[in-house]
Task: structure prediction
Amino acid sequence: MQELEVREESLPESTISTREHLIARAFAVELGLPCVDPDECFFENGGTSLNAVLLVANLQRQGLRVSLDQIARFPTARRLARVAVERDDAATIIHPAPEGRIPLLPMQQEWLANGIPRPGSNVVGFLLNASEPLDFAAMDAAVRAVVDHHDGLQLRLNQHDWPRTQRLDRTPAGPFLRMLARFPDDELELQRIADELRSDLDPIDGPVVRGALFPGSDDEVGRLLIVVHHFCVDAVSMQIVLADLDTAYMQIRNDNQVVLQRRSSSILELAQAASMFHLRPSAAESVTYWLEQAELLRSEDTEPRLTLTRRRTGQIIKEICGVRPSVRVLFGALAYAVRRSEMRDVLAVRMTHHGRGRFSAQLDLARTVGWLATQIPVVLDLRAIQSVGGAMALVDQALARALRFGENYQSLAQWLAGPAGAIIRSVREQSDVTFNYYLRQPNLMRDAQLAPANQQPHFMPTDTTRVPAMALYISGDFTGPMSLRWQFDPAIYDTDLIDRLAETQVAAIKEVCDGDK
Result:
């Protein structure tokens, strides 16, 4: 801290003032606010760790280099301006194409746990609307430029390796697009086109990117339907890919050289760091934490307390209007609902996380394209919960510890051998609720020619996707309606129970938000 203060004092006030203004403006853009005061806290204004990752990328585009750790320690524009440094593009390291086999990332390994799925399974898609007709040749060249720029889009699965590995394939795989004369009026026809595109995708031999372009006319805007195999991207990566696609298209359309924003750390670096994490001295503390969580789970009777009947699996949709719940509120309300239903004394939940804070001291993952998302088990001892407020306090403590050790949980589960590794893996296996929090992602495509028609990536899984005993999917928009969708095993949980859980959770969310707690 002393070194930072000395350095702060050595900066000219004019430089600090300029940086404050730039950073405050970047805060506002990432938070969706008209403006942010230089002394206002990024996180108290609604910023999340994912917003922070995107803030890093935004500031890099404007010539300032900051880290996630710096944003956490100096969360106001005024303080962050004093520790940010000017970006030196000349110092950018170009990562050579790796030789040999690349370890799988944890979510890739998880996806392949039941064997190699058929081509076309597990695809992420976006429908993009343009503000004018689209040029087919320019768009196909733009897709090629983006694929060439991001090594994550060049990954291929080595199907005969055991353990499974992947490789980079820089062989041209074009053309990437099909041109269709007219955008279909029938939604079923659009789905048929999407199904044809996804059937072309193959993580083993390629391609992993395909699209259909509807060029449009003077009376009709152009549209682009693009699908990417989930093996190579997650939701945040798709935002990066689409933003670069828009940039490349406009540069080609205007007869300019394609110059995309500097890449951050490569997938190779991340895969190697993840596969070696269990050997680092710092992993010992994480191992101890997860062994403690496994012990807590062993103290719980794993059978539901209620006598349940087999009923038809269904989806319970509950609309929540006029509230702005955070992750902790949604999570705390879930814990409260489960406790009130007297289902469990201990609840283990798999929480989906963007995974871009891993190895932040060594790697910059702000603009890395790949399946970086991870799942973190959060174990909650519900016995002390007496109120909604008590549930929130419990979740605050549990999330703080889980996030501290959790981003590398799947790396430990994947690579740690012996009894300790088996016990740590059991925490994931005993997590009977999946908490997927897919609220609208921060938008990387501001001022873009191409605007996503679907604010959320459309995930198209197949029957190879494993379904847990119970899963809660939360989607929507912080500023509007939100939906809770429960997916469950009717052999264990019946619809009446899920309905009560949803009703109780909605009531708990409203209690917290109405009380401004």
Summary: The chain has 16 helices and 17 strands. The first strand starts at residue 64 and ends at 65. Residues 276 and 415 are 8 Å apart (CA to CA).
